[in-house]
Specification:
Order of helices and strands: HEHEEHEEHHEHEHEEHEH
CATH topology of the largest domain: Rossmann fold
Strand order of the largest sheet: 5-4-3-6-7-10
Distance between the termini: 30 Å
Largest sheet: 6 strands, mixed
Number of strands: 10
Shape: elongated
Structural class: alpha/beta
Length: 312
């Protein structure tokens, strides 16, 4: 089966080489979506005070401890060390609405690749890695742990869910996005980085409540997976849409594309506003381009050819 439709564990392991040129920490390039003064926040690892010492030429004046300077009558600075690790929890959507792709790969494959790149990047940064992988029938919950073996275990679950989605007999059941977020809330009790990788299908008021609770004691990052055709649909004669159970012909009414675009934009605008109010960063990733390239463009060094007008 083509890698654009379903992805294997070996494919996800090979993406380790692509996990470079971006960071989920707070120190970002000026062009990064995580760097703006008034933009969404992402705290990253905490800082521990290592020592208070006299000022030396070249020290950052922002680290000056003015109280100690006044008390000791000599300039002193605070020296911090970054915590060595942070639990990273990847919440990976592999439901039926993700099984769509007009260019390069399915949204489900793009989400799996994004999870792999994020997991390898977190491992390289010294963080513990875990995940919540879900479809309509099942949630796989992996506690954050250290080491490459844990990353491979997580990616094995991602590949299993992804291949089941492309098997022609997709799972069915009661599991929703909110069930996955609730599982993430139980797992990430404090000081985690929770990365939601999803197209946000089925998001509602409960989603907003769960996101609020997650963001209260953790860093929450939303990676919104979208397909370019979903943002601008132009029906052609004989074009059908299939939800896995029923196929419907798309109407050729001249007003349908504009109405579809308005509804699509309305939903996106609503969730952008919700996450902005929570100070939660939203990174838009298109299924038409490799995820690692887009992550480097959004939260790393800018790349030529990156999307200038993403849907999210």
């Amino acid at each position: 089966m083509s890698a654009r439709v379903a992805i294997s564990l070996d494919d996800l392991i090979l993406l380790k080489a692509e996990a470079r040129g971006f960071s989920f920490l707070t120190r970002q390039p000026l062009a990064s979506l995580l760097a703006g003064r008034h933009a969404s926040r992402l705290r990253g690892r905490g800082l521990d005070l290592e020592e208070l010492r006299p000022y030396a030429p070249g020290d950052d004046v922002r680290a000056m401890d003015w109280k100690a300077t006044a008390r000791l009558r000599r300039p002193h600075v605070r020296v911090y060390t970054e915590e060595r690790e942070r639990p990273v929890l990847l919440v990976v959507d592999q439901r039926r609405p993700m099984f769509f792709g007009s260019r390069r790969a399915m949204k489900s494959v793009t989400a799996a690749q994004t999870a792999a790149v994020a997991a390898w990047r977190a491992l390289a940064a010294g963080d513990r890695v875990g995940g919540i992988v879900f479809n309509e029938a099942e949630i796989a919950d992996l506690h954050p742990r250290r080491g490459q073996t844990q990353v491979i275990r997580l990616l094995g679950q991602v590949a299993r869910f992804n291949q089941a989605l492309a098997s022609g007999n997709p799972a069915s059941g009661p599991v929703t996005l909110n069930h996955a977020l609730d599982a993430a809330l139980r797992r990430a009790n404090h000081d985690h980085l929770v990365v939601l990788i999803s197209d946000l299908h089925g998001a509602d008021e409960t989603t907003q409540r769960l996101a609020t609770l997650l963001a209260e004691h953790n860093d929450l990052l939303v990676i919104g997976i979208y397909d370019p055709l979903g943002a601008c649909l132009q029906p052609l004669p004989g074009m059908f849409v299939d939800d896995g159970g029923e196929s419907l012909a798309l109407p050729l009414d001249p007003g349908f594309p504009d109405a579809f675009q308005r509804e699509f934009s309305r939903i996106l605008d609503r969730w952008k506003a919700v996450f902005q109010a929570l100070q939660v960063p939203v990174l838009p990733l298109s299924s038409a381009e490799p995820p690692a390239d887009q992550l480097r463009a959004l939260i790393g060094q800018p790349l030529r050819g990156a999307n200038e007008n993403p849907a999210f």
